[in-house]
Amino acid sequence: MRDRPGNYVRDLQIRLTMLGTVVASLGVGVAASVMFVYDVITLPIYTILQKPWVRIKKAKKIRAKEVPGSVCRYRNYDDPIGFQVTMKREKLDTVEKIVRYAVKQHGDKKGFGTRAILSEENETQPNGKVFKKFVMGDYQWTSYVQFAARADAFGRALLAEGVKPGGRVCIFAETRQEWLEAAVGAFTQNVTVVTLYATLGEDAVAHGINETEVAHVITTHSLMPKVKTILNNCSKVSHVIYMEDQLEKTDTSGVKSGVKVIPFADMLKKGHDAKFEAHPPTSDDIAIIMYTSGSTGTPKGVMVSHYNMVSTMTGFAVALVPSPEDVYLGYLPLAHVLELMAELCAVMFGVPIGYSSPLTLMDKSSKIKRGCQGDCSVLRPTLMAAVPMILDRVAQGIKEQMHSAGRLAQGLFNWFVMYRNWWRRRGFSTPILHSLVFSRIAGLLGGRVRAMVSGGAPLSEVTHDLIRSCIGCSVMQGYGLTETTSCASLMDEYDVAVGRVGHPVSCCDVQLSDWEEGGYKVTDQPHPRGEIVVGDSQEKTKEEFFESDGRRWFRTGDIGLIYPNGTIKIVDRKKDLVKLQAGEYVSLGRVETILSTSPFVDNMFVYGESSKNFVVAVVVANAKQLGLLAKEVLGSEAEGKSHEQLCKEERLEEEVQKRLVKQARHGRLEKAEIPARVALTSVSWSPDNNLVTAAYKLKRKELSNYYKDDLERLYK
Ligand SMILES: *[C@@H]1O[C@H](CO)[C@@H](O)[C@H](O)[C@H]1NC(C)=O
Ligand SMILES: *[C@@H]1O[C@H](CO)[C@@H](O)[C@H](O)[C@H]1NC(C)=O
Ligand SMILES: *[C@@H]1O[C@H](CO)[C@@H](O)[C@H](O)[C@H]1NC(C)=O
Ligand SMILES: *[C@@H]1O[C@H](CO)[C@@H](O)[C@H](O)[C@H]1NC(C)=O
Ligand SMILES: *[C@@H]1O[C@H](CO)[C@@H](O)[C@H](O)[C@H]1NC(C)=O
């Protein structure tokens, strides 16, 4: 070979890479030895200070037992703890009573915070585009007493505007303090709240409003344009109440004639002077009709009674012992039961709630002006709820940063993560390592987060471990459905497992039942497996519920496995299962969860046809990673190509598929489960283009229609 500069550079690169690897391993080796010495010296001190046996004992506890005489029915037999006893004694059986009790307990303490938006500025990006960014001030706090006064006033104003006690109103709004005030206000008058996700498509919203026949729609400034269109299709709506924007005046022109438009503040004023008595609900009354956008077809409304809400809260709140320093960050959609339950628990315990939104959450969030602080940095929350999609993004960000910091840093970092997890499982925390290595990452969320609840979809094990060790908090995965009011099982603070969804909470039983077709049986060894059936003692008239020995049961469609200590693992989903030609079953959801941790993947959809013997996938490619890969694979050909054009490159598709194979081996997928061909797409999936639900679950039918041509090509 001729001696060209190119060859020389490549050769040098290879040598440097090898050298890098050696240095990195040496570096990790040195660090490991130093840490070993350090461990030996500090172990006795840590043992005395941290009393790991306490945590170990709590972690080893049996969490649920099989109900005697049943087949695979598990129940939580924990004795009721302090607040559960209180709730029983004080007969707190509706959300309204709980809020009243909380107000009595916490009075003038600060309870609800909203951040002031001072101004909006134009910020020019490096690429020349101009984005509008907020200049934001501090949190402004409302006390519990003030909150209750506002909620009561809102409830009375509803009656003044023609809502009947026992009637319904609809809240179609983003998460903010007024959302909760409006909902609690409605409860004081026994008014049922119909909740709709702010991200729901117009048709779905119209359907929800239509089906529940509400006349009063409560919305926000930013959703007004959407509401105006929807009104044309909802003949029954007579009133629109909107929560104002801090900066802009709301444009109310163009609202269908005959519909009264009222600002939220005017409602409070009106309610303040109105003389209406409260009509508190009873525990059997319906608190909420929640529209979940099912992964197929139109969304369906699920009725949730006050009893359901309260019993879920009692089960839910056991997972964590609140402390006086706690602050809760509220930013997930309140139309999601998980967030609503978490916020109501925070109210019950007197934990202040600071409101935020995905656009202003962190310093780097899209609406925060460069150099300004995001909500997390200002609020410094200790508790929050999360959905796997958000945690995956955080994890992705951490990995990218480590990747760019070089091989040595990456090697050390991975080792520190392992080290930390190793000690955590043995009941130790690692405060010095935290402040030296992880505090900057934890600082992204304000630096004080001590616990998160994750729900809504399965959380990948890699992400779970990474978040737990980098942020230094417990990440409690829960499992449930709106039909069971969000929570059937939940991990507690001391549970250090990954890939499990905790144990049944005190308000419901979890039972497994055989699913022959999928090959899951309660007699499976070493642990019973089967469809998860959740027991609910409430009246329900839905067909999904069936009666058995006086209790009502709900078939979830999810396949679970129960360990002897009462911990549940979700192993499959009935709907997500395809049977390939050779008779193998592939769980599409599981494959997606595992492969989504690849840096190339922003989102993905695995598809299997039962007439074929392999599965294929459509990947929403990560623009940054794909760009890097393109440089590597295509060389100079990649120059000047847009992300969209790169996604059409077959060579890149093949390359990404190879990377996914590696990821799949890592996640121990079977051969038939690994997508044999992959198509790349630059379209990001959102509820707006109807490819995912408002909770960002894949809509398989819509996706396979949308990518019909691609799927056919992949199967050729
Ligand atoms: C930002 O730019 C828009 C036009 O793009 C202009 O109307 C607006 O006044 C600008 N705002 C500020 C604060 O400069
Ligand atoms: C609350 O309203 C429902 C109708 O939505 C009604 O059946 C129930 O009796 C009311 N409860 C009370 C305590 O008035
Ligand atoms: C709403 O209901 C009316 C009849 O009650 C029906 O004609 C209309 O098509 C419905 N609209 C939607 C969007 O469901
Ligand atoms: C109602 O919605 C449907 C579907 O979006 C649309 O085709 C129809 O024109 C709407 N009806 C009215 C009265 O706006
Ligand atoms: C329960 O047992 C399983 C399997 O042995 C284990 O992985 C898990 O960590 C245990 N959970 C708890 C909370 O002890």
Which helices and strands, and how do they pair?
Blueprint: H1 5-50, H2 52-60, E1 65-66, E2 73-75, H3 82-89, H4 95-106, E3 110-124, E4 130-143, H5 144-160, E5 168-172, H6 177-188, E6 192-196, H7 202-212, E7 216-220, H8 224-231, E8 239-243, E9 260-263, H9 264-273, E10 286-292, E11 300-305, H10 306-316, E12 328-330, H11 337-349, E13 353-355, H12 375-379, E14 383-386, H13 388-404, H14 407-425, H15 431-443, E15 451-454, H16 461-472, E16 474-479, E17 489-490, E18 503-504, E19 510-513, E20 529-536, E21 545-548, E22 551-562, E23 568-573, E24 577-579, E25 585-587, H17 588-595, E26 601-608, E27 615-621, H18 623-634, H19 643-647, H20 650-666, E28 677-681, H21 700-706, H22 708-715
Parallel strand pairs: 3-13, 5-6, 5-7, 6-10, 7-8, 8-9, 12-13, 12-14, 14-15, 15-16, 27-28
Antiparallel strand pairs: 1-2, 2-19, 3-4, 10-11, 16-17, 17-18, 19-20, 20-22, 21-22, 22-23, 24-25, 26-27
Helix pairs in contact: 1-14, 4-11, 5-6, 5-9, 7-8, 10-11, 13-16, 15-16
The structure holds 2-acetamido-2-deoxy-beta-D-glucopyranose (5 copies).
One 2-acetamido-2-deoxy-beta-D-glucopyranose is lined by residues 206-207, 210, 233.
Structure report:
Residues 124-535 form the AMP-dependent synthetase/ligase domain. This is long-chain-fatty-acid--CoA ligase. Keywords: ATP-binding, Fatty acid metabolism, Ligase, Lipid metabolism, Membrane, Nucleotide-binding, Transmembrane, Transmembrane helix. It holds the Pfam family AMP-binding. Among the domains are: 5-50; 85-317, ANL, N-terminal domain (Rossmann fold); 577-715, ANL, C-terminal domain (GMP Synthetase, Chain A, domain 3). The model is unreliable at 537-545 (pLDDT under 50). The chain has 22 helices and 28 strands. Helix 4 runs parallel beside helix 11 (337-349) and helix 5 crosses helix 6. It is 39% helix and 22% strand. It is α/β, with parallel strands linked by helices and 716 residues long. Bound molecules: 2-acetamido-2-deoxy-beta-D-glucopyranose (5 copies). One 2-acetamido-2-deoxy-beta-D-glucopyranose is lined by residues 206-207, 210, 233.
